[in-house]
Amino acid sequence: MPTAGSYATLSSRNDLAAPAFANHEPNRHIWRMLRRRLLQLSAALVPFSLTARASPSIALSAQDQADIVRIQDYLNGLKTLKAHFLQVAGDGGVSQGTAWLERPGRMRFQYDPPAPFLLIAAHGVLTFHDSSLQQTTNIGLGRTPLGILLAEHVELSGHGVTVTDIQRVPGQIQLTLVRTNSPGDGSLTLIFADPPLNLRQWTVVDAQRRETHVTLYNVQLGGSFDPQLFEQISPPAAKQG
Description:
- This protein is an alpha+beta fold.
- The protein has a single domain (about 5-225), classed as outer membrane lipoprotein receptor (LolB), chain A (Clam), CATH 2.50.20.10.
- The chain has helices at about 5-15, 25-55, 60-75, 145-150, and strands at about 80-90, 95-100, 105-110, 115-120, 125-130, 135-140, 160-170, 170-180, 185-195, 200-205, 210-220, 240.
- The protein has a twelve-stranded mixed β-sheet with strand order 7-8-9-10-11-1-2-3-4-5-6-12, with helices on both faces.
- The longest helix has 30 residues, at about 25-55.
- The radius of gyration is 17 Å and the shape is globular.
- About 35% of the residues are buried.
């Protein structure tokens, strides 16, 4: 039963479903390799994410500050994105689907069958729908780490957001963020290919330290989307969290 704690909490219910790619034999080997790589990455990120929760601020070097400005400018310039996603939970559960992102404030995660789940962010609300149970749960987007990514104007230094860590490896830079006034609500780690700077993955850690890793592929930037993609689901029957 999904709870209204955070995006990671909601999505962990989905990760209990059978992987959608299980019925596609030609792709099984590819997905197994992707899953293995993501699990390796997840293991590497676990201590990093938990350390970030324990240390809500760090001293930033001049290089850190320059990179934060670059990332902030990139995110503010990111208006629309469509991609396929591969999601891995901390327990190893895997799912996939199609994601649409339209800043500010809009996102849709359409999970591939047989998973009966749909996640929509719009109008300041994050909505999770389970069609198999005909249940819908709403929580305020501002109470979730993903609200940082979908903000109208992303500001990564001050103004309610704190950078808790920044790390670099060849071809990649990752930035972990928390809400300054409520770091216990969870963290968001954004992972970029660099150079050039491109968003490729994020990790959400919720208040219970449960992790969800989302990797984007076949990314398409720009264009416009049908507003109906971001329509909320059955608001009168929604359960407020």
